[in-house]
Amino acid sequence: MARPLPGLIEAAHAAGKRCGFFYNWEPLRDLSRPEQLAVAYCRNNSHDLDGDARNLPVFLDLLRAEPLDFAFVYFGNVDSAGHAHGWMSPEYLRQAERTDALAGRLLAALPAEARLIVMSDHGGHDRNHGTDQAEDMRIVWLAAGPGIRSGVTLTTPVSLLDTAPTLARLMGLAPHPEWEGRCVDEAFAGA
């Protein structure tokens, strides 16, 4: 790490929060430092069309068995479809529909008091991403649950960097003073 700051998971762990990661793209193991997670599950099948669907029941079983204060759930098949077939291709859009249905199943399994942020880590164009093009930089960023404004479209720009401070607020934590993002306060009820 160029600047070894404590991340969201380290801050949550230091505050006694139980965190878990459920993912299917193996490089995500580096999102937190060792010994910070109560539960970690990876089946490296993000390039398999049905990988997300096969993983979801395992995720749900583990979430039921392990009460957590924070869970990171990653569905990687949409990204793989973008690389394989092109962003916004018919195959990509079909995979996005599958993932939307899986997210619905996940949401239905969560307790009523759960709050969540649903987002993409990047956009894309053709079969690539990583440029400054608008297609690469714009993502979906949704927040829902108790205390979150419902049916509102945010008018201020939201950055990926804003996600950790916003999640910190949802967990009752102060963001690290050197984190670059900001809490998306306008997403909260009473904003």
Task: Describe this entry's structure for a reader.
This protein has 191 residues and is an alpha/beta fold. Helix content is 33%, strand content 11%. The chain has helices spanning 8-14, 51-65, 77-85, 90-109, 134-137, 163-170; strands at residues 19-23, 39-42, 70-73, 116-119, 141-144. Helix 2 (51-65) runs parallel beside helix 4 and helix 3 runs antiparallel to helix 4 (90-109). The longest helix has 20 residues, at 90-109.
**Termini gap:** 35 Å
Taking all Cα atoms into account, the compactness measure Rg is 17 Å
Give the low-pLDDT segments: none
The helix content, as a percent range, equals 25-40%
Number of helices: 6
SSE topology string = HEEHEHHEHEH
Output mean pLDDT: 93
Concise summary:
By secondary structure, the chain is α/β, with parallel strands linked by helices. It has helices spanning 8-14, 51-65, 77-85, 90-109, 134-137, 163-170; strands at 19-23, 39-42, 70-73, 116-119, 141-144.
List the defining traits of the structure above.
single chain, 191 residues, alpha/beta, 3-stranded parallel sheet, two-stranded antiparallel ribbon, 6 helices, 11% strand
